[in-house]
Amino acid sequence: MNATAEAQHSLGVVESFQEQFSTTFDTCYTWNYEPFKVSLRNLYEKAKHSQWDAQTALDWSIDVDPEAENLPDVSNPLFGTHLWKKLTPAEIRKFRREQLSWSLSQFLHGEQGALLASAQIVDAVPWIDGKYYAATQTMDEARHVEVYDKYLREKLDKEYPINPHLKTLIDQILTDSRWDMKYLGMQIMVEGLAMAAFGFMEKMSTEPLLKDLTQHVMRDEARHVAFGVLSLEGVYADLTERELQERLEFVYEGCRLMRDRLYAVEVWQEMGLPIDETYDIVAHSETMREFQKMLFAKVVPNVKRLGLLKPWLRDKFAELDILKFEALEASA
Ligand SMILES: [Fe+2]
Ligand SMILES: [Fe+2]
């Protein structure tokens, strides 16, 4: 193959796995290099000291059995139902592997969304401290993509595509032209929810590598959520009625999408389960309901701290049964 043919060949390979889309947002120079938001500057200093190398910080030599009960079976919303009781021991082992691969694949793709969004924030945010911090977050997110990819590839040997609800929300965040929406969507909602989901994974997992990996990721993510809260604090004080309503609707829509992203339909298909019946059982399962609600335990207090918990959104949160989290502590 000559050089031109090789270039064309590799371009063809790239086209087979890429998805392009247009975004428009204002890129912003800042000519004031003085610390502007001291809290963000402090967070940046902390982020520099907290960097880690995914290749050396984790013990990748740990042998993982992908079909073991790495997460307790009882955390599967189908556990104990007649569909579960019909599964053979071999099918249960397969189900564990598929479910874990699906969950970690969503983390992987969500991390890529965060990588793209934090890179956009470097460009769009008007303060130098915000640009500094977002640059460290971009590095963090690259590392998170790296660890989930490595775990899926080397330990589970299976990866699922992105869930359509998660994809819709990330698309909205990346294509919105307003810089605050990128924070609101990514740092406050997606990462707020991810913190709760990672917390669940860390607590429930009995697999030492996954536990350690999740702890490392969580330490970074806690800073990312704080970055969102510190950056947006005070920003929403002077909005017009219409601008404010747009933010409230964005938050509500994001919460709805995130709640619906938890149905692992692709896994049910893989397991040959009856989709409609499984959906019905999972939607009414106490485990799923509690898990969905628990996920919002960080989002709601942060939304409140930003001054967005207005009557319209309170009603919507009450409908989703997540308003009760408003009294919990915010993340900054
Ligand atoms: Fe991340
Ligand atoms: Fe993050």
Question: TL;DR of this structure?
Answer:
By secondary structure, the protein is mostly helical. The protein has 15 helices and no strands.
Secondary-structure blueprint:
Blueprint (H helix, E strand, L loop, with lengths): L2 H15 L20 H12 L4 H4 L24 H4 L3 H36 L3 H29 L7 H12 L3 H26 L3 H25 L8 H20 L4 H7 L3 H9 L2 H10 L3 H7 L5 H9 L13
Helix pairs in contact: 2-6, 2-9, 5-6, 5-7, 5-8, 5-11, 6-9, 7-8, 7-10, 8-9, 8-10, 10-15
The chain binds fe (ii) ion (2 copies).
The site of one fe (ii) ion (FE2) has 6 residues, from α5 and α6.
Any descriptors?
mainly alpha, 332 residues, binds fe (ii) ion, Ferritin
Mean pLDDT: 92
Question: What percent of the residues sit in helical stretches (DSSP H or I)?
Answer: 55-70%
Percent of sequence in beta strands: under 5%
Query: What's the architecture in CATH terms?
Result: Up-down Bundle
- Give the ligands present: fe (ii) ion
Low-confidence stretches: none
Can you describe what's shown?
The chain has 15 helices and no strands. The protein is 68% helix and 0% strand. It has helices at 3-17, 38-49, 54-57, 82-85, 89-124, 128-156, 164-175, 179-204, 208-232, 241-260, 265-271, 275-283, 286-295, 299-305, 311-319. The protein binds fe (ii) ion (2 copies). One fe (ii) ion (FE2) binds at residues 111, 114, 140-141, 144, 221.
